[in-house]
Amino acid sequence: MSDSSNPFASPQTDAVARPEVVWAAEQPEALRKVKLGLTLVYIGICGMLLCVAVLAPLLMFSLGASRIELVALLGLAVLVFSVVMLVGQIFCIAVPAESGARPFAISAVVLEVVCLLAMVLGTIATVVGMLATVGAIGQALANVGSVTCFLLFLRKVAQYIERPDIAARAMRALIVGVLSTIAIAVGAMGPFAPPTQGEFLGWLAILGMLGALVAFVMYANTVTYLRKAITV
């Protein structure tokens, strides 16, 4: 409060410093690590989207040996960008414990490692049909879990630095992602359903995949908004 007896006294405030300011002052290196981690995650997400936008359409219209080469290239690209995202998530573990976000970052890392292992083992075991299927399902579940945990991490960090708008973005991306995943899972039952229901389930699966793509874009936007909100 200002000193009313001295009109020339400098004004003072009782306001408490924002958590982000305290974080930057007390743990600047940790702040830089988290920002770098978010940057790497963003690069990984954009790389994944680029793979879907460029390689997936080519894969649909390719035949023979060229198709096999594209599948291998797509798999390699996904693996590389997944590793980039994993490294970024590891950097994000440096977030302050008091933010409540660290457990979500650790969970995301663990699930991402499981996803990568399932991807590699599934590729090796393609000769064994059932094992490959189990690996693909495990990879999908781990990937969904990792993204979910990291979105919750983003929400917690956004709340910690007092950016409710970014926290809301994270929740919207999570909701769209969950609904899309449910639609894909239900739609996958199409081949086992009667013809009339199978057609509906097929369209539901397509809708779910489009929703998942939208959720992934929302995920990327949330990451970059939070990255820009963290000032070092």
UniProtKB/TrEMBL annotation:
It comes from the Bacteria. Keywords: Membrane, Transmembrane, Transmembrane helix. The keyword DNA repair does not apply. SUPFAM superfamilies: MFS general substrate transporter. The chain crosses the membrane at residues 40-64, 70-92, 104-125, 131-154, 174-194, 200-220. This is Uncharacterized protein.
